[in-house]
Specification:
Blueprint (H helix, E strand, L loop, with lengths): L1 E6 L4 H12 L3 E8 L10 H6 L7 E3 L10 E4 L3 H14 L2 E4 L6 H10 L4 E4 L5 H17 L4 E8 L9 H13 L4 H4 E2 L14 E7 L6 E8 L2 E8 L4 H14 L5 E3 L1 H5 L5
Parallel strand pairs: 1-2, 1-4, 2-3, 4-5, 5-6, 6-12, 7-9, 8-9
Antiparallel strand pairs: 7-10, 10-11
Helix pairs in contact: 1-8, 3-4, 5-6
This protein binds nicotinamide-adenine-dinucleotide and ligand LLHOTIJI.
Catalytic activity: (S)-2,3,4,5-tetrahydrodipicolinate + NADP(+) + H2O = (2S,4S)-4-hydroxy-2,3,4,5-tetrahydrodipicolinate + NADPH + H(+); (S)-2,3,4,5-tetrahydrodipicolinate + NAD(+) + H2O = (2S,4S)-4-hydroxy-2,3,4,5-tetrahydrodipicolinate + NADH + H(+)
Main location: cytoplasm
Family: Belongs to the DapB family.
């Protein structure tokens, strides 16, 4: 069995990951940890996630548990994630990184650290969203420059980063489809007398409201008609299931950074 360490085990995602790891035939929920001072420390993580006693008591900090597992599943906060990656590199532990909000500098550092450990890093672990990433690129490439590309994302009011990592990836894929660099054409805020829209812009707008799990719409708007590609998450369980799938996949890989396209076999689409 592959022993799994869950970072942020008391979080919205951590709790569901614990459940999905418990249910995976090749995974064993071996250890869990939380942020220093978290009220969850010392509690049974299984109980938190599914009402199932499974005897995994939440510890404080990765260093306290890193020797108990083969792979770390991380849905925490971008600064914490980078600390864990540095430790994983020192201890040659695999990682599944679901945390978003990582900067370009973080991702560059992660690429260097991953010379010493294998990791899957993905802003969205859902199968359908990863198919949507591919559809966004292909749709943009087919329609070309005569269609304005805009993205709207909606999430719950507790989400700390914006735009969502998924929205940024959708925009990046669409930009690739039409041969643009997202860093040059992304417009994430519009306010005041903004003037006419530049045709090459890719707009990304954010909604934060109530308990919305995660919704993304990609607009390809032309004169007189448009295409909308839409994904709506019904629960966090499909993200957690994707993370468990990635954890079972990554432990046999060479060191380096992989995506969910690699895990799901979507790379050639
Ligand atoms: N890739 C995906 O499919 C996917 C899906 C959902 C959420 N996310 C991302 O996952 C992250 C977490 O989302 P969430 O809704 O679970 O948030 P959350 O705030 O509910 O959970 C985060 C947990 O991490 C803990 N944490 C923070 N710093 C820590 C540290 N240094 N050590 C240990 N634990 C620490 C917090 O105490 C909290 O319990 C966000 O970045 C979100 O965007 C990604
Ligand atoms: O709930 C969240 O936070 C989510 N974050 C990811 C993102 O930023 O894209 C994935 C969707 C849910």
């Amino acid at each position: 069995m592959i022993k799994v360490i869950i970072a942020g085990a008391a979080g919205r995602m951590g709790r569901r990951v614990a459940l999905m790891v418990n249910r995976h035939p090749r995974l064993e929920f071996a250890a869990a940890f939380e942020a220093p001072g978290s009220p969850a420390i010392g509690k049974d993580a299984g109980f938190l996630s599914a009402g199932e006693e499974n005897g995994v008591i939440i510890g404080e900090g990765l260093e306290s548990v890193i020797d108990q597992g083969d792979v770390i599943i991380d849905f925490t906060f971008h600064k914490a994630t980078m600390e864990f990656a540095r430790l994983a590199a020192q201890h040659n532990r695999a990682m599944v990184i679901g945390t978003t909000g990582l900067s370009a500098e973080d991702l560059a550092e992660l690429g260097g650290l991953a010379k010493n450990f294998p990791c899957v890093q993905a802003p969205n672990m859902s199968v359908c969203v990863n198919v949507l990433f591919k559809l966004a690129k292909k749709t943009a490439a087919i329609l070309g420059d005569d269609y304005d590309i805009e993205i709207i994302e909606a999430h719950h009011n507790k989400k700390k980063d914006a735009p969502s990592g998924t929205a940024l990836k959708l925009a990046e894929m669409a930009a690739e489809g039409v041969g643009r660099k997202l860093s040059e054409v992304a417009v994430c805020e519009r306010n005041g007398i903004i003037g006419e829209r530049r045709s090459e812009e890719i707009g990304i707008q954010t909604i934060r409201a109530a308990d919305i799990v995660g919704e993304h719409t990609v607009y390809f708007a032309g004169q007189g008609e448009r295409i909308e590609l839409v994904h709506r998450a019904h629960s966090r369980d499909h993200f957690a299931r994707g993370a468990a799938t990635a954890a079972a996949w990554i432990v046999d890989r060479e060191n380096g950074v992989y995506s969910m396209f690699d895990v799901l076999g979507l790379d050639d689409l």
